[in-house]
Amino acid sequence: MEDRIKEIVQKELTKLGAGDVSFAVEWPADLAHGDYAVNAAMAASKVLGKSPRDIAEALVPALVEGLGEDAASVLIAGPGFINITLSERAVSARLAEAGEESWGRNEDENGTRIMVEYGNPNPFKEMHIGHATGAVIGEASARLIEYSGATVLRDTFGGDVGPQVAKALWVFQKDGVTDIASAQEIGKAYTQGATAYEESEEAKAEIDALNTRIYDIVGRQEDQEGFSEEDRALLRLWQKGREVSMEEFNQLFELLGTKYDYTFFDSDTTKPGMDAVLDAVAKGVLEESEGAIIYRGEKKGLHTLVFVTSRGTPTYETKDIGLAFLKEMRAATDRVLILTAVEQVGHFKVFLAALEDIAPMLAKKTEHAAHGLLQLTTGKMSSRKGNVITARELITELVTAATERNSDPVVALQVAIGALKYMILRSAPGSNIIFDPEKSLSLDGDSGPYLQYALVRARSIVEKAGKGSAAKNDTSSERPETPYVLSRLITRFPEIIRKAQTLRAPHVVAQYLTQLASEWNSFYANERIIGEADEAYKLGIANAFIKTMENGLWVLGIPAPEKM
RNA sequence: GCCCUUGUAGUUCAAUGGAUAGAACGGAAGUUUCCUAAAUUUCUGAUCCAGGUCCGAUUCCUGGCAAGGGCACCA
Question: Which protein residue lies nearest to nucleotide B68, measured between its Cα and the C1' atom?
């Protein structure tokens, strides 16, 4: 339809002598303005030396003729917009498509294989709401990509060696702990270790030494040559800690609706990373300075980044280089997308610049995108200070709130997860999300449950009407002269999905679904459906709404409860 | 000091360079003999400041002011 309009207008503009003018066929934010709006008259005004309204007058007849019965009206409005409103016939034809399972999907990326990295909690720390934010946005982004026909390979990357590990294990060693029971215990140990690291020179030295030792032992865990009894005990403690952490993460990811195809660890990436780094030093891409190996980002207008510390341990940068190679070895992909919090954009700029020099092919297909941080109204979160809200705590709290209105634990969980995800996905990625633990657990209004509730009510009606009504294909029932706004809004879904994909912005879908749910709720409140002369027609709309909401919620990863 | 991001109702967020800047929460007042009131209807109220580009600027550019993040041995 959009293309048809564009074609007609283009042809007319050429006739008027303004064929070069670029214009847009857009969908007005306010449906009262129509289903499509053309701004060609304003755009051509200067070239033609005529007023926009005069040009619009000249364009309208061709549109009326060209669109025929599909257009209910073609009107000139405002400064010179040509507003086109679709006829009931055209809208109903599109609504029929909305019943299909594939409604909203497109094939823009058919056959492409894309690896998407997100979440990335670190073992030996607790998973906090920041990681949960990443997981939620990442999952929605992945699903959005899947809706374009691409194959998505999900991966997460965790730091199982490095200072944060040493900080936690140092505390366990000091306290003589040999068996780690829970993720909470690890979180507590990490906080203690991090505090000691900052407050005591002695502790700092010990932790640094332990860090180097862990690298060594973990690196040689295969053959364990020359391991002392102490080394073995440390390795066991490390293994147990990682296992407990990952078990907790997997549980949380399951609650959040993510299942990873690949889990990478720092310990896997250290070796390929170090190999690549030493190779790069030989080639002159990286250089030694003050005992460390660094990349001079200044030559590309960036800053210097350390790849290997003067103690000989690799940093995050080297591990990321190793990870890039490791991904390439494990899976064939066309693109690699890495999603992290905004605080890492600086790092990734320099990292990608370095990767460009080290492995141009890998750099070319790798892309980094950032999402905002979750910020507490009470101040900045820091696991060091121990004032974090863990993902576990937050979910538990939400479930408690949801349980007040749902006796069914399954539904309560779905509502809680829906509320959490919506809170994160409703705003544009990139800017920070201000999280007020007191107020943000909203289950009313602009929220996940709002969408879920609208869907549940729609399903309930269709169910009540019974299968005998054959709502979908009935054309005999009465229908209005002009289509419902709800119907017109439903037909926009595929365009919304495409926009969200282009901008890589799940919030576009979230905003749309909220508008859709609101429209449905008004429809539901104002129109009697069951038992009316146009029952079949309205049930058709209800079914189209259900499919649209179901598919939209799926993209966001928000569960769709059966009952509420 | 340098670099990046962001400044929109009291609060939390929208607005593909377009029309009367939309929602939600909060506050005020209504709507259930009627398909689930987690709903619905009405009212309340905002583009940080100053220039510039454009037919048209919340959006793009420049300069202020303010907030957040990052700037070699953390991830």
Answer: A432
